[in-house]
């Protein structure tokens, strides 16, 4: 549990936030403090980031015993490691001696987890197995690493920092049928990009959840990705004749495609067609990788499988490659966005794919959105900030995200106030 320096001030800030949630204008973006206040940011961490399941990486990044990845979630450094039995475990990346971070590399492999400060040594299951000169009364069994909830589905690794994690099975049941045909556990990371967005994490999400800005900002993306919101957004996709026809065909070949939104609005999946003639996110619309992502999915035109899970990930899975996006908060006005391009594990760079062709569209799109989000944050910081109504045509995805955030946060605040 995180300790607050002043519990009374914290409760006052939360009470004020709850009142603003109840009084908000549902037709516009949130009030200024939600995007720039340190108190609101801390509440976001405590109520959402430290309690929900969060996507952190891929199974293919930790394939073998001793393989690990690390991630910083707010104030918590976390390590995910493959144990000697092939299982996944997650721990707080904090030595039980005097608190030093144990693993600083983003990824690596080690037979044991050794703190570099005083060489306390932990087995891959978190047990403390060596602590030099601690005296005869010292009991190693009481000083193992602190566990973090960890789960894996469809090639994606998730963690939850909460003492009691929400049930993961609804997420598994929702995501697994869509992802299993693509065999993402049999892939590798072809390229990775990490950007520090100078914007609140909610502004990063709001920017992602609409294509109202695409024509003016993303000439590379709209060569293949439809701007038409009825082709990509929510239940309205079913009213798009082309999309409905594609769904019928794709499901007939074993690829779940129809729109599916979780009951609480936190995650959704849908397969959407690219523009006519396009099969991948490239400037030409042609496949970026000559070897299919999964050997069992040989049809090149399967659109893109979209998966969103608030607050931490959106994804595209195509026939030739997949792209995952991971959102992590850094401060009230800074967000880390990590993008990973996955290809078949046996695909060879320079033979099966060219990195520039594979990554070009989304590197350009991310760069433009970095500018968009930064300028959005600068404008929101102004005391003159006063948003107009959302576009009912283009911004349904934004309103859905904001509604989830507000109802989710309000529910948690009310539960804690009891």
Write the layout of secondary structure elements.
Blueprint: H1 7-23, H2 33-36, H3 38-49, E1 54-58, E2 67-73, E3 76-82, E4 88-92, E5 107-109, E6 113-114, E7 121-122, E8 128-130, E9 147-153, E10 156-160, H4 169-179, E11 187-197, H5 201-208, H6 214-217, H7 229-232, H8 241-252, E12 260-261, E13 267-272, E14 304-309, E15 313-317, E16 322-331, E17 334-344, H9 355-381, H10 396-417
Helix pairs in contact: 1-10, 5-9, 5-10
Describe this structure in words.
The structure is a single chain. With 418 residues, this protein is of the alpha+beta class. It folds into two domains: 1-48 and 177-418, Naphthalene 1,2-dioxygenase Alpha Subunit, Chain A, domain 1 (Alpha-Beta Complex), CATH 3.90.380.10; 54-165, Rieske Iron-sulfur Protein. Helix content is 29%, strand content 23%. It is built from ten helices and 17 strands. It has helices at residues 7-23, 33-36, 38-49, 169-179, 201-208, 214-217, 229-232, 241-252, 355-381, 396-417, and strands at residues 54-58, 67-73, 76-82, 88-92, 107-109, 113-114, 121-122, 128-130, 147-153, 156-160, 187-197, 260-261, 267-272, 304-309, 313-317, 322-331, 334-344. The strands form three sheets. It has a seven-stranded antiparallel β-sheet with strand order 1-10-9-4-3-2-5. The protein is globular and about 75 Å long. The two termini are 18 Å apart. The model is unreliable at 1-5 (pLDDT under 50).
């Amino acid at each position: 549990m995180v300790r607050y320096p002043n519990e009374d001030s914290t409760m006052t800030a939360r009470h004020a936030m709850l009142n603003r949630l109840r009084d908000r204008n549902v037709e516009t973006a949130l009030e200024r403090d939600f995007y720039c206040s340190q108190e609101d940011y801390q509440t976001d961490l405590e109520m959402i980031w430290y309690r929900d399941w969060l996507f952190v990486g891929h199974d293919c990044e930790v394939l073998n015993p001793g393989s690990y990845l690390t991630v910083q979630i707010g104030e918590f450094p976390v390590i995910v490691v493959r144990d000697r039995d092939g299982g996944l475990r997650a721990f707080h990346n904090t030595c039980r001696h005097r608190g030093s971070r144990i693993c600083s590399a983003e990824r690596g492999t080690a037979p044991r987890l050794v703190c570099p400060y005083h060489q306390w040594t932990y087995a891959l299951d978190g047990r403390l197995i060596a602590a030099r000169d601690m005296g005869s009364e010292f009991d190693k069994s009481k000083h193992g690493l602190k566990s973090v909830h960890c789960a894996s589905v469809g090639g994606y690794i998730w963690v939850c920092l909460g003492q009691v994690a929400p049930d993961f099975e609804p997420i598994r049941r929702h995501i697994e049928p869509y992802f299993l045909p693509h065999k993402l556990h049999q892939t590798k990371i072809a390229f990775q990009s990490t950007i520090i967005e100078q914007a609140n994490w909610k502004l990063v999400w709001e920017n992602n959840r609409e294509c109202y800005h695409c024509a003016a900002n993303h000439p590379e993306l709209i060569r293949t990705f439809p701007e038409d919101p009825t082709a990509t957004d929510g239940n309205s996709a079913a009213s798009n004749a082309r999309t409905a026809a594609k769904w019928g065909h794709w499901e007939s070949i074993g690829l779940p495609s129809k729109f599916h939104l979780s009951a609480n609005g936190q995650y959704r999946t849908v397969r959407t067609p690219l523009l006519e003639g396009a099969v991948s996110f490239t400037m030409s619309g042609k496949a970026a990788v000559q070897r299919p992502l999964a050997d069992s999915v040989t049809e090149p035109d399967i659109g893109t499988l979209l998966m969103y899970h608030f607050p931490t990930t959106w994804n595209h899975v195509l026939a030739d490659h997949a792209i995952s996006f991971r959102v992590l908060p850094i401060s009230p006005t800074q967000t880390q966005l990590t993008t990973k391009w996955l290809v078949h594990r046996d695909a060879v760079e320079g033979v099966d794919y060219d990195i520039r062709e594979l990554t070009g569209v989304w590197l350009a799109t991310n760069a433009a959105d970095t500018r968009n989000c930064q300028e959005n944050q600068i404008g929101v910081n102004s005391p003159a900030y006063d948003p107009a109504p959302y576009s009912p045509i283009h911004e349904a995805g934004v309103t859905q995200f904001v509604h989830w955030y507000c109802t989710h946060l309000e529910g948690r605040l009310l539960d804690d106030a009891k």
